[in-house]
Fold:
Amino acid sequence: MTTPSGDVEGGEVDFPHDAERLLSALRERGWSLAVAESLTGGLLAASVVAVPGASASFRGGVVAYATEVKHTVLGVDAGLLAAHGPVHPDVAAQMAVGVRRALEGADGPVDVGIATTGIAGPQSPDGQPVGTVHIGVATPNGISVRSLTLRGTRDEIRTQTVRLALATASASL
Structure:
């Protein structure tokens, strides 16, 4: 649920349904999917591959937990990382674009890249509030970023982020 302040809390988690809906929309378009995860640490990819038949669209994922990996593997601008750190809307956007290239196949880049970056807590390493989350989605139609402030425990924030990333990507298609 989104509060008037833009915070998100609670809500039912239905990864199989959310991932199924996204994969179905991708199959209808003949599109592929890749994910770049920091905050979610592989949970997003795991939710996608839990759906039977995911291999028809899912190319793979990169867990770019360390800031350096965001730059060296995903191509996030080093100047952006130095100026703003890894938890920033532009970082999420560049991660989503970067994973499309990083997992490119013989037929070209992946069609849809989803990226997650944020602070799950319990403490913030850079002064931003715990629960600060940015979800980037890159498609052939453009790039979008959803920035949120989530509430809950570390696990709840990570779980909510996956649910919202799947929903954001579905809405971007």
Remarks:
- The CA atoms of residues 135 and 165 lie 6 Å apart.
- The beta strands are 7-8, 33-37, 58-63, 112-118, 132-139, 142-150.
